[in-house]
Specification:
Order of helices and strands of chain B: HHHHHHHHHHHHH
CATH architecture of chain A: Orthogonal Bundle
Largest interface: A-B, 82 and 105 residues
Number of helices of chain B: 13
Number of domains of chain A: 1
Distance between the termini of chain B: 61 Å
Helix content of chain A: over 70%
CATH class of chain A: Mainly Alpha
Helix content of chain B: over 70%
Number of helices of chain A: 4
Order of helices and strands of chain A: HHHH
Oligomer: heterotrimer
Chains: A mainly alpha (117), B mainly alpha (331), C mainly alpha (113)
Number of strands of chain B: 0
Structural class of chain B: mainly alpha
Strand content of chain B: under 5%
CATH topology of chain A: Helix Hairpins
Number of strands of chain A: 0
Shape of chain B: globular
Chain lengths: 117, 331, 113
Amino acid sequence: MDVFSYFNYWVVVVLMMLGFFIVIARGNLVKKLIGLNIFQTSVFILYISIGNVSGGAAPILEEGVALYSNPLPHVLILTAIVVGIATTAVGLALVVRIHAAYDSVEESEILAQDEPC
Amino acid sequence: MEVLIDIVLLSLLVATAVALVMVRGLIASIMLTSVYGLLSASFFVTMGAVDVAFTEAAVGAGVSPLLLLFTVAVIGRKERAPEGGAVLVKSLLLVVVTGALLIVGTLDMPPFGSPDAPAQTHVAPYYLQQSGAEIGIPNVVTSVLASYRAYDTLGEVLVIFTAGVAVILILASSSHRGSARLRNATVPDGSPHTILQVVGKILIPFILLFAFYVQFHGEYGPGGGFQAGVIFASGVILYGLLFGLPTVCRVLPPPVMEVLAALGVLIFGLTGVMSLLNGAPFLDYSVLADDPVTAQHIGIMVIELGVGITVASVITAIYYAFANQLEPGPN
Amino acid sequence: MSTILAWTSDACLLVGSFLLLTGALGFLRFNDFYARIHACGVTETLATALIILGLLLQSDSATPQFKLALILLFVLFSSPTASHALAKAAWNAGLRPRDNSGKRGIPLPPRER
């Protein structure tokens, strides 16, 4: 069991770093947003893992159940997911406008166009 | 057994993320994002976070890939080859070092699932033991969301509302002031989606009904305003995809959606003002009726309704704004 | 009586899992897009239905049974439709099935030409 007691956290770190890698190493703005999404979801997984109590039931009160998962991370993440999609939509809207202005969504091409010549 | 499912799901998540790093082309990336969302929703179920799983299934696997697809439909699906050489080496180095530091950091955390971890011993026991008596509804997540931490939730709803306004403003074209008004009213060309339309007509009423069930059953089972709003919006979006933007705009006109988005926030805020006027702190519902527990129940139902209205209309309005970009403009 | 129910339920779950496995295998092994959709689309509908049926037989109270029955109905509608949508999208995008030798361009039916 000892090996697995940190497994969730390590997976979170790996997912977070994969998202981070996409954000910094890929030039496409939509891909960057996808990377941010992965990063964000890894944080969700971290919170939910912290809130988990082994053997705990879903936090809906019921007769005869004594052990529940921690409801607080659930509340935080539940709202964070919907806020996340709203902010992602803002990012995508900006990408659409950037495409209209620069006719490209590749970071390098946009930067090249902004260079003073 | 639960550990096994946990490990399998997490490994699949990592595999999907690795595939996302490897894959070229935006459509494939978006499909993988959808898979990623569904997998994380399944993971949340195994962790006992049913409310979260609900939301993530609708958002992560449904709405978010859809918005990405709309964007890609506007800007094109091509992705340039990633930068090689120095950039790649530098980013790999940065990622590996940061990851290693974080992993060293996790070793100080309490073991996964331990009941005496600090996160489990402060406010959570209070919520679990007292909410039954104080609020009187079984779903603790709803109690915490809508009553104990209602201030927080009001902030989140405001963020969602602001994001919706921002999207409408960013995407509104200069020639069409205001919002996602229709640029032109053409039905999508190509062969008609007869089968999809028939099945959609059968299923969409039940999706909307399910959204109402989730909204009003949120006190007793998993559910609530956030989930219901997202599910309702995805039903509307499905209708729009099958029958075209003009049709769905006749059913739910964009200006109505914008007013509704503001109305939901207003309902939430006014509930807080009501408790102020009754001599209690902001958003303390216990003074809204004679019996504090009934009052809490009423307060939670009202603000969950506000949340549901705002979330549903903001996501629908965002969909309108993006779908409107696709319709060919007049010039 | 309950033993028979338990056995039927187990059989349903087993056959369902087996079908999902074959579907996944076909999805990986077939070389044509339409054949792949066929493999997972056909098996998935029946396999999901069988698994839900197995779970239905295992649960002993009315509420979960009712919910499972609703899910079953939903899956029976949505799963074939999803396969259809995939195939239609591929066809509209101009992808044509391959024949056995892996050559694209099986002749179209006269009406479509």
